[in-house]
Request: fold
Amino acid sequence: MNLGSDCAPDTKIPCTSACGARVWDLRFGRGLLTSVAMKPSQSLTFSSPAARLQYLILMGLFRLAVTRGLYGRFARGLGRVFGPRTAVFLHEGNAPPFRIALNDGYWTRFALYRAPYEPEVGAVLRAAQGATPLFCDLGANKGYWSTRAATLFDRVIAVEAAADTFADLHANTAGLPNVTRHHAAIHAVSGQSLTFVNTHLSHASARLMENTPPAARDRTESITTLAIDDLVPPGTPALIKLDVEGAEIAALSGAARALAEGSVLIYEDHGNDPACTVSAHLLGLPDMRVFSIATGLVPMPDTAAIRALKTDRFKGYNFLAARANSPLLARIAESFAKTAKPG
Reply:
């Protein structure tokens, strides 16, 4: 990797992130933009000149990753060399910056190296803009979609269960007055206590403990539950993104009113689930419609159609679901149809 030719000199102009940190701006040349597949509307700033160097080395190493596990090993290994506080701030359009720790194997891989992150979800958010005042980011992780949604919706509700991850969510959204944060777990009923497992080295894979004990280096936490129907005000069809590893069916049982009143759900059906459990549950509900959003808004008549799309057992696939008579669904479908028209 030729660091000298891949990027133009950085402009040592301090910028201020949403977290209040001083960061260094970097203008990208064509070579680096191509290597990380960034859109023209995206740019990066860095917590320090050392973070800039760490980022460039990491992106070069990612090109050599022949197995999924190597991404995390590269990120953590460089993190031990450069220290745990180095970070990149991802800027996209008018959205607030999103802080990515450079020792984070998940976000450095998916939001930086394989950018843009989940473009199909972004398309749904843009389609729903102006059609609902409320976006719910349930299982918000470190707040990527909460920060993207803050400029699109009047109000954003972000819920995250893991304490360390919630601290990062809070830092990324602290300067956004229309974002309400809850340190809680989404489940069927509010006010209960649940124990979940923080998977070692994978904050994106936290799960309910239930009948599967934690591994030796996993950590467990107990947290209070929140039901979706207690978050979404009556009469407000919300756009809801649900990413709660293993608790989806319980979460949906706590969203009966919200879904009946026209809320639209973005959810994940994982490639390692051939039964398509969450999708099968939704398709079994009266008048519920399920759509693939990978290449537009494509109706999914049954689990066989959904299963055919899930070709990678290591990947989570995003789908959309809503009642057939949902006005919000109709507005989203209309927006997708306009986007699909030539010219």
